[in-house]
Design brief:
Shape: globular
Helix content: 25-40%
Radius of gyration: 22 Å
Number of strands: 8
Order of helices and strands: HHEEEHHHHEEEEEH
Distance between the termini: 59 Å
Largest sheet: 8 strands, antiparallel
Structural class: alpha+beta
Number of domains: 2
Mean pLDDT: 83
Strand content: 15-25%
Length: 249
C-alpha cells in the first residue's frame, strides 16, 4: 500500500515539477488518479470486472460482476455471456482461455462442454475433463448418463439439460435461451468458502439461476487450484439433477 501512495505522490510531484510557472494551472483529476490507484492496488481477490473478449473464432464473450476469489462476501454475483456456444474443442479452449479466470466464467465453460458433449461425444468428453476439477470422479459418469440420447420412455436422460441454465430458457419455450447465451450466478450467502488442502485454494459455493427448477437456483461449486490458470467446477451435482421437462415434449 505504501508503494501505491508513493506512486500517487510521484505523479502529483511530477506535475508540479513539469509546470513550475505560477501562471500555468495544473489540472489534476483526483477521481482519475484514485481510479489509477485502485487499479494498481486491486489484487486478484477483488474480481471486480466487466470485460468483453473475442476469441480466435471471432465469437465475443464477456464476464461481468464481482465475486471475490479468496474471501466470502454475501450479496456478490456475476454473469458470463457468449454469442455462440463452441462447436469444437478449439473454440472451447479459446472460450476457457478468455473467461475461465472468473467463477462465473467457469460455469459458462462447464455448460459449453456439456452442450458440446450432446452434439459431439468425443470432443465434449475432452472438454468436460478440462472444465471439471476432478473428471475421474463419479460426477463424470452422472454427466454421461444424463446427457446421453434418450430412449423411448427414458425419463432420466435430458439432452436439453445445458440449455436449462441459460437466461431466458424456460420449460414453456422448450428451453430456448435469450441471446447472447448468458449464465447468472450469485454467491451462496449462507455458505462461506471452504479451503481444499490439496488444491491450496478455496471452494466457492454459487447459486446458478434457472427456470428449470421450482427453487429457481441450482448449487454449483468452483475452485481455482493454486498454480492453475482457470477456475473449474468442483461439484457438478446441481448441474446433473433433473430439471423440468419442456412443455413441448
Amino acid at each position: 500500500m505504501k508503494k501505491i501512495f508513493s506512486f500517487a505522490a510521484a505523479v502529483i510531484m511530477a506535475a508540479f515539477v513539469c509546470c513550475p510557472q505560477p501562471a500555468l494551472a495544473v489540472n489534476i483529476d483526483l477521481g482519475s488518479l484514485g481510479k489509477v490507484i485502485q487499479d494498481i492496488g486491486g489484487g486478484s481477490g477483488s474480481a471486480a470486472k466487466s470485460h468483453t473478449y473475442s476469441h480466435s473464432s471471432g465469437m465475443p464473450a464477456g464476464v461481468d460482476g464481482r465475486i471475490d476469489h479468496d474471501t466470502h462476501h454475501a450479496g456478490q454475483g456475476g454473469t458470463c455471456s457468449v454469442e455462440k456456444l463452441p462447436e469444437n474443442e478449439t473454440e472451447f479452449d479459446a472460450l476457457q482461455q478468455q473467461v475461465g479466470g472468473e467463477p462465473q466464467g467457469a460455469v459458462m465453460v462447464m455448460l459449453a462442454a456439456m452442450n458440446l458433449y450432446v452434439h459431439d461425444e468425443q470432443a465434449g468428453l475432452s472438454c468436460l475433463r478440462k472444465a471439471m476439477y476432478d473428471s475421474y470422479s463419479s460426477d463424470m459418469q452422472r454427466l454421461k448418463d444424463k446427457l446421453r440420447p434418450a430412449s423411448k420412455n427414458d425419463t432420466y436422460a435430458q439432452t436439453f439439460l445445458p440449455m436449462a441454465f441459460f437466461r431466458g430458457a424456460t420449460p414453456e419455450n422448450n428451453y430456448k435461451p435469450s441471446q447472447p447465451y448468458t449464465v447468472e450466478v450469485h454467491v451462496n450467502d449462507a455458505r462461506p468458502y471452504s479451503r481444499l488442502t490439496e488444491a491450496r485454494a478455496p471452494v466457492i459455493y454459487l447459486n446458478l439461476l434457472t427456470k428449470g427448477s421450482d427453487s429457481g437456483i441450482r448449487p454449483v461449486e468452483v475452485i481455482k487450484a493454486r498454480g492453475k490458470p482457470y477456475f473449474t467446477v468442483f461439484n457438478t451435482a446441481g448441474l446433473t439433477s433433473q430439471v423440468k421437462f419442456p412443455e413441448g415434449d
